[in-house]
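B., you asked whether I could sanity-check this one before it goes into the benchmark set. Here's the sequence:
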Amino acid sequence: MLTTACSWLPAKPGDANAGMKGTQGTEPKKISASGQPLEHVTVEDASGRVEVQKVEFRAGISSTTVERLAKRNGCTGPLGAGLLTARGPVEVYRMQCDSGSIFLAQCELRQCRPMHK
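And here's what the prediction gave me:
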């Protein structure tokens, strides 16, 4: 399961309409946790077109462990393993392999195992 979150805050506390001034008929820009606008990419294949939201890379406590696990499973990549979920007792990591495939791992209390499709 891939989860993402975005937030929108008014300019001043208590002024819920402050961010909407001058934006009649448009949606407020969605902002990532780091304060950067979220990027969307359209991907097309034989089954059709899909809009994909790019997720910023976040290292987690078990990133190094997942990178070693990925290497043992034949996956190496320049970026390493990024945390997809919120930090906590159960975390999901994703790593882009040089071959183009994706390696996913779930870590529970720092014990990691690959997630197979």
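One thing to flag: Helices lie at 63-72. Otherwise nothing jumped out at me.
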